[in-house]
Design goal:
This protein is α/β, with parallel strands linked by helices. Helices cover 19% and strands 30% of the residues.
Amino acid sequence: MISVDEALSHLFALSPPREAELVPLRAAAGRVLAKPVSALRDQPPFAASTMDGYAVGSSHAHPGAVLNVVGEAAAGHRWEGRLGTGEALRIFTGAPLPPGADRVIIQEDVTRSSSHITLNSDLESGTHIRPAGADFKAGHEVSAPRRLGPSDVALLAAMGIGEVWITCQPTVAIIATGDELVMPGEAPGPDQITASNIFGLAALAEAEGAKARILPIARDIEASLKSAFSLAKDADLIVTVGGASVGDHDLVGAVAQAQGMERAFYKIAMRPGKPLMAGRMGEAVMLGLPGNPVSAMVCGHIFMLPMLRAMMGLGAMAPSYQEARLGTDLPANGRRAHYMRARVTNGTVTPAASQDSALLSVLADANALLVRQAHAPAALAGETVQILPI
C-alpha cells in the first residue's frame, strides 16, 4: 500500500493540463483562465461625477456664491465646452466632468433660480468625482491560471475583453460495475441495490467544472466491461466504481490491463478507500474507485477533484485542509489514514458516531472530513485537528 500523498503524486503525473480554447466571455464563468488578459483602456476612461449636482471649479465653491448654469451633461452625453469663471454645469451621475471643473456640488446644496444657482451655507466637503483610471489603468493584467467567478467576468467585461483563452473542460466517463446494481427509477431485484455513488461523483466533477458522462452499468463479465471501456475511450478521465478489489468477481483491473492500461499503483493506506487503482489507458487516465458508496465519494474528494484541477491548469495541489477544534476524544489511529465523516459547528468538529463506508445518510449529513493521519496518537477534545470541508 502507498500513502495518500504518494498516490496523489502518481495521479498528478498522469494529469497534465489540457489545451486551451478561445471562448466568448459569456461562456467563461466558472472555467479556468489559461492566458493572462490586459485591459484595453482606463476604467473609468474619464473623470466622472458620482452624484447628481453641478460641476464647478473649486475656487468658486464657497457658501453664497452665485454661478451661471451654462449647460448640462448626463451619462453617455458629455458637454462640449470648458467652464469659465463664475460658471457651473448641471451634471448627472456617471457623466464626464468638463474641463475647468474639479468638484461637483450635490443638488441638495444649491438653490436654483432660472439659469443661476446659489451655493448653500453648509456645503459638503467631498468633490464627488471619480478620477479617470480609478478602478484600473489600460494594461492592467488579470493573471492566469485563475478560475473565473462572477466578479472576474464583470472585471474582464469592464476591461473591454470579449473573448478569453480558457482551459478545455476535462471530460469524465463514470462507470458503475456489478451485477447487483440497477439505475435509479428501475425496479431492483431481490438481490440488487440502486447505483448511487456514480451520481454523486458526476455531481462532484461537474461542480468542479468538468463534463461528466454516466455510462451504462458494466456487469461482472469481461464483455460488458470491455464494452463500457470502449464507450469511454474519448474521455480524459475514466472513473470506474467497484470491482477494483481482488475477489473472483472483481474484474476491473484485469480487463483494464488487457485493454492496455499501464497501472501506476494499486491500494492506498487510507480508510475508507483502500482498494483504489490508477493508470493510463490510451489517451485517458483511469481511476478505479472502491464500490462502497462512501468510499467512492471520499476518494472523489481526495483524488478525483485534485486530478481535475490539475487538468484544468490550476496546478498539482493536494486538497486544501483547514483546522478545527476537536469536539470529542478520539483513540489512536491505525496504520491507514482515516477520513472520518464529521460535522463542523462554530469551529468545532465532531465525527459521526458511525463511520460505516456504506452509509450515505451519514455522509450527506457531514460537512467535513476529519483527517487522522496513519499512526496518529490519541487526541483529546479541544485539540486542533485537520479537516477537509466537503
